Amino acid sequence: MGVPGKDFHNAPMQIRNTNHQPAAARLTTQDRTVKFQTDSGAPIQTLDTATISKAVGQAVAEAVSSSQAASPIEGAESIPGLFKIYRKDNQSWLSIKPEQLNKPFFFSSNVSRSVGENRLVGSEMGASYLAEFRRVDDRIQLVALHTENYAQPNTPQEKFVSEDYSDSLISSAPLTKTKSGSEELLVSAEALLFQDIAGYKGRLNRVYGSNFALDTANTHFTQIDNHQEQTSFGVEAHFQAGIGAPGPSTTPLRNSLLTEFRYNFLELPEEPMTPRMADERIGHFVTTRKDYTSDEGDGLVRMVNRWRLEKKDPEAEVSEPKEPITYWIANNVPKEYRKAVREGIQEWNKAFEAIGFKDAIKVRQQRANDKFDTMDARHASVRWYTAADVGSAVGPSHVDPRTGEILDADIRMADVFGRGAKSFLKDNPPATSAEVQEHSHEHLGHIHGDHHSCNYHEHAAGEHEFASKLLEARGGDEKASKELAQAYVKDVVMHEVGHTLGLRHNFKGSTVYTDEQLQDAEFTKKNGLGSSVMDYHPYNLAGPGEKQGEYVMSTLGPYDYLAVKYAYAPLEEGKEADKLNELARRTTTDPLLAYETDEAADGMDPEVSRFDLGSNPLGFAQKQITLARELWERAQTQELPQDTSYKELTRAFSSGLSKVAGAVRLANRYVGGLSLRRDRAGTENPIYQPIPAEKQREAVNLIADTMFSPDSFKFKPEFVSRLAQERFGNWGNQNYQVGTRVLATQSRALQALYDNDIAQRLIDNPEKLSEEAPVYKLSELYDTVQNSIWSEVGENKEISQARRDLQREYVDLVAGKLSDSSTPGEARSMLRFLTGRLQKQVDASLHQEMSLEKRAHLEDCSQNLEKILNPEK
């Protein structure tokens, strides 16, 4: 039971699980008598002062002598737990028993509160380590142990590994002296923990370019929780930079911010969990260590990250677990979404029941008066957070690096759900397609050890924006919108819980069902929109004349059951390796169970993509373009209610343009594309299979017709003239330039088609095909695109301003490719030939009658083409 905390640096602090210790007999004076009292206050003896002066002098001398040797924790409040804590006069000490020195424990640093922008947000799991306390002379060190490389104890290999791989110092502080003869080792908790353990100063300075530093004088404890298995501290830290330095836009003073960290010391499992070896054919996060004990093989040991799950009754076909996996719904989750969150978590019980565990996952609700912080290491949780500039959902976890056992997990959900996705996107428009793509590579690429990132909702923001605008244009109702929001929450929670159970993304999962199956709501309620909830699914929007099915994923897919079975199924001792191999092999033989993940996503395999849906990704791309054009057509004829901001039209235009760009990116992956497999010997399948030539040709024609034809982007003048920008605080160009935005989208599509990697694959792919197999050639790609962009030249047609801009963009691209030494030689040769042919066509067309604008444009292009072909002239 907790007790009221005392103020620390004028800030309230909570203390948990404290025991009151009996006070020593104390000396008090009153009038002309001296009374000795016990803690109860009852006098033991009263003496006349005239007869005790000698005794008083002796007592004072003894008191002075005692105070000189007294421990600083004399009379302090004692808080028992993993590491005993003493509290006295706004100071705290950590007590370390001699037997706790050099004994590993789990240490983590999490961020409970931050500034809400630039990815500096609260509810963030930070770094974790296997750590220990060491005494070096008169200092106590908190040391992070090197765990990635090891050798069996008491071997020569253990010695040279320890000599070549260093531990790291997290923090240290002077040893506090205690009474003579005491075995307690005391260290000031302030001195040990009021340091930049989380490395936040570096993050702040990288983001803002300022010299932020930790201000320890204004750093204090906010909460201390102590339990038998965990000691946890909440620390509010003040970071400050010089006056006028750039800093967060969300704080009253840009050079000053208060953030809160949660430092957790957790006792390691007494018996390490038996590891389960990972397999590259099925997707789990892994903990990798290198064992130097033997010279055989590469020594790498890859262990699946998973919770410890054991049956109460090992003999029963279905049994409750000894310890269920428990998720807490934090008390900051809005009440209207708690049911959807709970359902998203509990959906995974279906996969565990299939392998013999009843109620493997429990869900508990943190109440408003529960004072524990779910950022400690004992409460896996789902938490809400907010940010000024982005909304995302992430599902990280912390593991025991010796075994891969998951010890803690905290899912962070943006408050976009609490405010409603539509209203969020009105206030925070999604990034352009290029910004999303660039940003996604930066953030999703960070997967190392037990850390990983998943920004499902951040990527889905554009998807939700488009779906909202299209359904609104089609006449959606408010009730359906609320139901969709609830389903969306459940979908994202299922995805993030999957991560915290150890599952990686599976971007093959969305391409297993046909359009007919996707339109059948009863089918998808049973089987999902794809084979795995660990994919990124777009909204399942019906096209014109199609039946509308479920909009979002509502249940697990067949791959999810397999991945859970591989990680958690109880296996017979001695037969584990064979059983795991059998399970992993199924991903290479059953299309419903195929697996591929982040490293290959959005690359050269068109079936390994984010936000595609259905067994024909190219057909899906065409459907997205059709839906975008439907949105534009409806928006151009839409009558807005009186006093509605014209920004609604702008959102519709921008969302449709982003959807077209995304569809073209999907089609682009067919060009020079390769199907990837994770097969091993015995399946007779090639690892790399070039995409059929007819599919590549179809993709290029789709891109050319969508992006580069004269009729690609035409809008009614009355629509374009009403596209409005934000009028609050907009000090930039007030004109909304449709042509500039369209040209930027076309330019990105053009650059993607002429990517050097695509050119090289088109050159190399015939090596992987039989001699009689049809081949899609680089020459056909370049010829098709050039003819599409310059179609007016040979037809004596007027060239519009938008087309002239696109043609100039093409000339600049060719110039860059021919001057770039990294462009494949075959590509340079073909580009040079086709550019020469184009110049001749342009020069021939100049003999015709034409407008002054067209003539000026073509003569300028001819001169630039001449410079490209003959740069030395």
Report on the structure:
This protein has 873 residues and is α+β, with helices and mostly antiparallel strands. Among the domains are: 22-69, no CATH class; 77-266, no CATH class; 272-602, Collagenase (Catalytic Domain) (3-Layer(aba) Sandwich). The chain is 36% helix and 18% strand. The longest helix has 23 residues, at 478-500. The model is unreliable at 1-12, 18-47, 49-53, 59-68 and 417-451 (pLDDT under 50).
Average of pLDDT: 87
- Biggest sheet, spatial arrangement of strands: 1-14-15-16-8-9-10-12-13-7-6-5
Q: What is the CATH architecture term of the domain at 272-602?
A: 3-Layer(aba) Sandwich
Which CATH top level class of the domain at 272-602 fits? Alpha Beta
Give me the CATH superfamily of the domain at 272-602: Collagenase (Catalytic Domain)
Largest sheet: 12 strands, mixed
Helix content percent band: 25-40%
- In angstroms, what separates the terminal alpha carbons? 88 Å
Structural class: alpha+beta
Rg calc: 33 Å
Poorly predicted regions are 1-12, 18-47, 49-53, 59-68, 417-451
* Assembly of the depicted chains: single chain
- Proportion of strand residues: 15-25%
Write down the overall geometry.
globular
Number of strands: 28
CATH fold annotation of the domain at 272-602: Collagenase (Catalytic Domain)
- Number of discrete helical segments: 25
